[in-house]
Amino acid sequence: MFLKLKIFKYLLIYRFRKEFKTREALETWQNKKIKKHLKRVVKKSSFYSERLQKYNSWTAFPIINKKIFMDNFDAINTHGIEKEAAFEVAIKGEQTRNFSPMIKNITIGLSSGTSGNRGIFMVSIKERAQWVAYVVLNLLGFKFKKRKIAFFLRANSNLYTSAKSRLIDFNFFDLKKPLKENILSLNKYNPDILIAQPSMLREIAKAQQEKTINIKPSKIISVAEVLEPIDHSLLKRTFNQVIHQAYQCTEGFLAKTCSYGTLHFNEDLVKIEQHFLDSNKDRYHPIITDFTRSSQPIFRYELNDIIIDKQAPCPCGSIFKAIDHIEGRSDDTFVLESRDGKSVNIFPDFIRRTIIITCKNIKEYIVEQSGDKEITIYLDSQNFESAKTLLEEAFINLLKHYNVDDCSLIFKPEVPICNTSKLRRVKRNIKQ
Description:
The protein is an alpha/beta fold. The chain has a domain at 333-428: GMP Synthetase, Chain A, domain 3 (2-Layer Sandwich), CATH 3.30.300. The chain has 13 helices and 21 strands. The chain has helices at 2-15, 23-41, 46-55, 66-71, 73-76, 83-96, 125-140, 158-161, 179-189, 198-209, 229-239, 348-358, 384-401; strands spanning 102-103, 106-110, 120-123, 147-153, 168-174, 193-196, 219-222, 243-249, 252-257, 263-265, 270-276, 283-290, 298-302, 305-309, 322-329, 334-337, 343-346, 362-371, 374-381, 408-412, 426-428. Strands 4, 5, 6, 7, 8, 9, 10, 11, 12, 13, 14 and 15 form a twelve-stranded mixed sheet that branches. The relative contact order is 0.10.
């Protein structure tokens, strides 16, 4: 009952929060929120208390990343929870598939670690209430009508089940279960809202096209993985609707799509700084400062996701920063040596576009840098030899653009199966 009252409280707060007409008004409000939030945080977080004493202002804090965040887990969190104990609870939940245990009434979860480093997230009852209220209003849409929500993820959490109510029937589909079993269960459930990662949504779309299932969701939300054009096109064609996205990670609920399908950062929850990665200043790492989370305070935390800026204004009229798309992770940028011995970076988007533009008959693909001078391309195509010929020429031309001559291209006619880990179609996978 206490949690439900908290949720109702934040539903009212978020529902009647004032709208910002200018960036200046938004940033002034954000800065006030951050200063107030920091005052509360430093009382219980020795990490940020020391930083504030040393640097005087949060704007001068050195930027941190996932490694620094996890190395200082005990000093950053405000509940006195040790990293070892948190990992023990999170890993046990993964193994037993029972995600209800908590520490000191704090929900503990384990990130999937696509960057190679596992992370731990902690959420208090207050933060659970805030998350549910925000998601219901801004992602699911509030309605006085009971709706069934199918939610596919690697792991469940008290955070997600908090959304259950008289108006929301939340059903978790465990990705560790066999695909066929999940597909048949989904058909029987027939959800109003379908939430899953693109790789799972793709399987659902295939089943819908093959008439194995017949579901009629009014809203589809892509989560956890990069929604690539090949998947977006299939989903839109199959279900004939705008495909929405939620950009959420261990570090927070960062962005969501508007009614036009454009991703906007949730700048009423987080402040975004940009670390630009190219001279055009349209590709960047987001540096986030969250002014709502207190269990694991986040100030000036740089993600290694590569964000592509949306240049044109969104028709929805929101002043929140718009994202053209999420390109991938920086550690999936191909690093090769040019003919003059210089190191060159090829961003995932250029690899992805080479595949999509060159060959229209590709059902599925994965491209990985498998060695210092080796790229492996896995293809599922109607005509493998034809696709291979076209792509070989296209990749040679792409590499020539970067003055790379000495690089082997290996083509394989089977795409590795992705079970419960996040699908990354472009990845740097060099064995040390």
